[in-house]
Design brief:
Layout (H helix, E strand, L loop, with lengths): L17 E5 L6 E5 H8 L5 H9 L3 H5 L13 H4 L1
Antiparallel strand pairs: 1-2
């Protein structure tokens, strides 16, 4: 799978054990074990694809208000990348 500049789960090995995902708009929050993400999606799996999947069932996303869409992010990525 081409990277196209995306951060992959493999990029997190040795940097993070848990990947935090949070949205300030809807309040959703979760942590995912990097090893498990690699097991399920492969080391070349893209974080952006995970975020897209997580946003897909968010009430903010489903409401369709473009000014108030889900803003799920991985806040720790800036610190480790």
């Amino acid at each position: 799978m081409p990277r196209n500049g995306a951060i992959t789960f493999g990029d997190l090995v040795g940097k993070l054990d848990l990947l935090e995902v949070a949205c300030a708009k809807c309040g959703r929050k979760g942590r995912y074990a990097v090893a498990r993400l690699i097991e399920q999606r492969g080391s070349d799996g893209k974080i952006v694809d995970l975020l897209s999947e997580l946003r897909s069932d968010c009430p903010k996303h489903l409401a369709g208000d473009m000014g108030d869409m889900c803003a799920a992010r991985c806040p720790e990525l800036l610190r480790v990348m």
